[in-house]
Design brief:
Two copies of one chain form a homodimer. Chain A has 16 helices and 18 strands. By secondary structure, chain A is of the alpha+beta class. In chain A, the strands form four sheets. The first copy, chain A, has a seven-stranded antiparallel β-sheet with strand order 15-12-14-13-17-18-16, with helices on both faces. In chain A, strands 5-6-10-8-9 form a five-stranded antiparallel β-sheet, sandwiched between helices. In chain A, strand 5 and strand 6 form a beta hairpin.
C-alpha cells in the first residue's frame, strides 16, 4: 500500500493526495449522514490524464476506487466502505467549463463543475441549462450524470441522460474514451454514453460531458391550484399536456398532510390557498413568445379546469418573488420532514394511469398495518414520480419505531410498486442503499445482464465495488 | 442441421418455417438491393416465447440468427450472409398493438407492428406517435428500435431511443427480459434499454416496446424559404429555436442542385420559390393552441428573418395539400437520385457550428479531386444531419465511376467528418455496410468497450454476427 501511495503522490503531488484523518474526514460521510466509511486516501486529480493514471495504478495494485463529486447523493453511492482499503477519487478540481457553443446550443464541462455554475454560465449566454435540483449549489455534473439525476425540470426537458450529448470516460483499465461530441444524432454502434450514465461510477469514471442547452424562456407563470381528488390532479395534468404541451415545465403535487407539516415547522410557508384542500398542485408554464401570451393561455386552461370541476381554487403568482415562494413551499416539505424527525422515504415512479389505485391501496394497507403512521406524499406528478414517505405515529418514539418497522414498511411499499409495474428508484439511484433489493426488483434476467456488463467492463471489480451490483 | 429444422418445425408448425428457395427469397435481399444473402430457413414466430425457444435451440446448435423486421434498413443489418447457415427470424407475425394508455400517454406494441399502423392507432385516440420516416408503410417498430431510427420529427421529439419507455427483449441465452414498463423515470441500475436500442439485433432480439405518445397538434403550418448562404440557414434555425422553441417540428435544408435534380425527374415537384436560390429550407411549426396563433407566430418570425436579411423569399403553404406537396418535394430528392442512377451516399452529422466549414471545405476538396462530380446535399439541418451524396460526372459511366472511386470518395468525406467531430452514421446505423470503418471512427477504446459488451452478452456470437462489431 505504501508503494501505491508513493506512486499516487508522484502523480498528484503531496497536496492533492489526502492521507490524514482530519483531511479525509469531509469525504467519508454522505450528505444525509446515513453512510460513513473509511478510505486509504482521497485523491484530487486535475485532469482526465491524472484520473487515468490513478486508475491504472489502482488496477495494478487491485485497490478499489470510489469516484466522488459533490457527495450529495441519497443512496450512499459515493461513500466508501468500512475497510479503509478504498481510494476516494474526488473530481472537484476538474471544474472547468470548457466551451459554450451558442450555434450548436451545447455546453462542454469537466465532471467536477458545480451544477449551479453551469446554469449561471449558460444564462449569461442567453441559454437555459435545464437540469435543476435541490442540491444544485453543491452537486457536480459528473455525479448528476453518474446517477442520472432528475429534479423539477424532467417533465419538459428530461433527466440528466436526456440532456447529455457526449461523454469523456476513464475506463476500469485506465484508458480514456473520448466521446466528447456535440451531436444530436449518432448511430455508430452500442450506446456507451447511456451505459455509463446512471451506472454510478461502477463501469467507468465520467470526466467530462457535452450537454444540451435551450433558449431561455422570456416569461414564466406559476400557479397553485386546489384539487379535491387525486384523479382530478391527473385529469388536470392531461388537460395541461393537451393545451399547453411543452410550455408546461412544472407540475408538482402536494397533499394536505405535506403542507400541514410545512406550516407547522415553517409558518411563513403556509398554503396561500384557503380551506386546506386534499391536493395542492404547483403548475409552471414557460414561454418564448410574450408575457401576455402565456398569461392568457394559463387563464384559459384554468377556466376550463374550473368549469369542468377539475379544480376548486387557484392562485396565480403575482410576480417572480411570489412564484419563488410557491416553489420554496414545495421544496420545504423535505426540510419540514427533517425537522419533524426521522422518516422512511420512498422515491418511486408509478405509471400515471395506476397512480390513484396505487395510493389508495397503499394508504389503506399502511394505515391498517401501522395504525397512526403519517403519510407524507408529494412529488413530481408530471413524471409519475412520488416521494411516498412515512413518518412514525406522533405518540411513538421515532427512532425505535423506524428501527422496528423499517423493513416491513419498505417491503409493503415496494410490493405495491411491483404490483403496479413501477420503479423502486425514480431518480435517486441504487448506490448501497437499495443494492440488496435490486435483483428481486429487476428480475433474474435483467440482473444477470447487468452482472455480465459489470464483469465485462470492470473484470477486476475495482470501480466502486458493491454499489448497484455486487460481483 | 436437419435435427434443428425438425425441432424448429415442432415449435412453429411447418407453415411458419420457410425452407424452399421461392419462399425464402423475399427475405434475402435488402430494400435498396445492395445486399443479398442465403439462409438455412426463415422462422416466423408468433410470440416472444417462440422467439426464446428458437434462440435456445439455435444456441445449442451454434447456428446464427439474423433478426428481421420490415427489412428496409440502408446498411444490410437485417440481411444474412452468404453461408446459407444462418436462420432469419422475421417478426412480422408479432404485429399486435397491445395497449394504448391515454392517461400515461404511452402505447405498447409487439416488435413486428408496422410503424404506420402505430401512427394511425395513436391518431385514432387523439395522439401523435412522432416517429416518422420514408419507409413507415413497411418498416416495423422492432427494426426502428434496433437501428434507433431517426426521420423528420427528431428535431422536436427525438429519435426512436428518445421515444422508448420500455422493452421486452429475448437474450442470446433465450431468456425473456420483461422491461415492458411505461415509466418516465427509472434509475434502477444499468440502462439495458438503451444498450439494446441501436444494437441492430446483435445483443438481443427486441420483441415488444412501450413508446411515448404526445397530444396531437391542432394546427400545423409549413413554409418554404430561400436563403442565399448556408450560414443564413443556420441563423434561421437559431432564430426559430429562440422564438418558436418546441413549436418548431421540421427544418429541412435542400440545395439548388438537389431541387434541380428533383425538377428534372419530377417536373411537378418544381420549387415554388422562384429564382433557384442556393438553399431552400422547409420549416414546419405545430401548435396546440389555435390556427391563428401559430400562423401569426410564423409570420412574425419570417418578418424578422426578412428584415435581418436572413431569408430572401418565403412561400407559406395555403392548405394541408400544399404543405404535403412541400414535404413530398423534400422526400422526392432521394427518388430523383435513384432515377438519375447510382450515387454515393453519406448519412452524417456535424455539429451545427462546424457545418458551414465542413461543407465549404468538403465541396472544394471533392470538386478538385473528382472534377465534374455533382454534390447532392440535403437533410435534417435542425439535427445537423446531412445526406451528403455524390453523383458521378454527367459525361462518365456511372457504374464504372462509382466502382473506381467509391472508396476514395468515402474516405475523403469521412476524413472530413472526423476533422469536424461528426458521425459517419447519423441515423442509418452500421450493419454490414459500415462495419469495416467503425473501429477507426470510434477509436480503439470505444471499440474495445463495444467488443467487451458483445462478448459478455452474446459469448457464442449467434446473434446477427459480423454486424456492427465482429468478434
Amino acid at each position: 500500500m505504501q508503494n501505491l501511495i508513493h506512486q499516487l503522490t508522484n502523480i498528484l503531488g503531496a497536496k492533492f493526495i489526502l492521507l490524514e484523518d482530519q483531511d479525509k474526514s469531509p469525504y467519508l460521510t454522505d450528505w444525509r449522514k446515513r453512510f460513513t466509511g473509511k478510505a486509504l486516501a482521497v485523491a484530487l486529480p486535475k485532469s482526465s490524464k491524472e484520473v487515468a493514471q490513478i486508475v491504472k495504478l489502482c488496477s495494478e495494485h487491485q485497490v478499489a476506487i470510489v469516484p466522488q463529486g459533490g457527495h450529495t447523493g441519497f443512496c450512499g453511492g459515493a461513500t466508501p466502505d468500512n475497510s479503509g482499503n478504498q481510494i476516494i477519487l474526488n473530481l472537484k478540481r476538474m471544474n472547468q467549463i470548457i466551451e459554450i457553443d451558442s450555434v450548436n446550443q451545447s455546453i462542454t464541462l469537466e465532471a467536477g463543475c458545480i451544477l449551479q455554475a453551469a446554469q449561471e454560465k449558460a444564462a449569461d449566454h442567453g441559454f437555459l441549462f435545464p437540469l435543476s435540483l435541490g442540491a444544485e449549489g453543491s452537486c457536480m455534473i459528473g455525479g448528476n450524470l453518474a446517477t442520472n439525476a432528475g429534479g423539477t425540470n424532467v417533465l419538459r426537458y428530461g433527466n440528466a441522460r436526456d440532456l447529455c450529448l457526449g461523454l469523456e470516460v476513464v475506463t476500469a483499465q485506465g484508458e480514456i474514451w473520448n466521446g466528447v461530441k456535440g451531436l444530436r444524432k449518432d448511430n455508430t454502434g452500442y450506446d456507451l454514453r447511456d451505459l455509463f450514465i446512471g451506472s454510478e461510477g461502477t463501469l467507468g469514471i465520467i470526466t467530462a460531458a457535452v450537454m444540451k442547452l435551450y433558449p431561455l424562456p422570456i416569461s414564466q407563470w406559476t400557479t397553485l391550484v386546489a384539487c379535491e381528488s387525486l384523479s382530478s390532479t391527473i385529469h388536470l395534468l392531461n388537460l395541461f399536456q393537451k393545451r399547453a404541451n411543452s410550455l408546461l415545465t412544472g407540475f408538482e403535487m402536494m397533499t394536505s398532510e405535506s403542507l400541514a407539516l410545512n406550516e407547522k415547522h415553517f409558518p411563513h410557508m403556509a398554503n396561500p390557498i384557503q380551506g386546506n384542500p386534499p391536493f395542492t398542485v404547483l403548475i409552471e408554464l414557460s414561454d418564448h413568445e410574450s408575457e401576455e401570451h402565456v398569461r392568457q393561455l394559463l387563464e384559459t386552461i384554468l377556466e376550463e379546469a374550473f368549469t369542468s370541476h377539475i379544480i376548486s381554487d387557484a392562485v396565480i403568482a403575482k410576480n417572480l418573488s411570489q412564484a419563488n415562494t410557491f416553489w420554496h413551499m414545495r421544496e420545504h416539505i423535505t426540510l419540514a420532514q427533517a425537522e419533524e424527525g426521522a422518516n422512511l422515504k420512498h422515491d418511486i415512479t408509478i405509471p400515471l394511469s395506476s397512480l390513484e389505485a396505487f395510493i389508495q391501496e397503499t394508504d389503506l394497507l399502511m394505515r391498517s398495518s401501522f395504525p397512526g403512521v403519517r403519510i407524507i406524499n408529494f412529488g413530481h406528478l408530471g413524471d409519475g414520480n412520488l416521494h411516498y414517505n412515512i413518518a412514525p405515529p406522533l405518540d411513538r418514539d421515532p427512532r425505535a419505531f423506524n428501527e422496528n418497522y423499517e423493513k416491513q414498511i419498505h417491503d409493503l411499499v415496494y410490493a405495491q410498486v411491483e404490483r403496479h409495474k413501477g420503479s423502486i428508484s425514480a431518480e435517486h439511484g441504487i448506490g448501497q442503499l437499495k443494492l440488496a433489493g435490486l435483483r428481486a426488483h429487476k428480475g433474474e434476467v435483467a440482473h444477470d445482464l447487468m452482472l455480465a456488463v459489470k464483469k465485462a467492463l470492470d473484470p477486476k471489480n475495482i470501480l466502486n465495488p458493491h454499489k448497484v451490483v455486487s460481483i
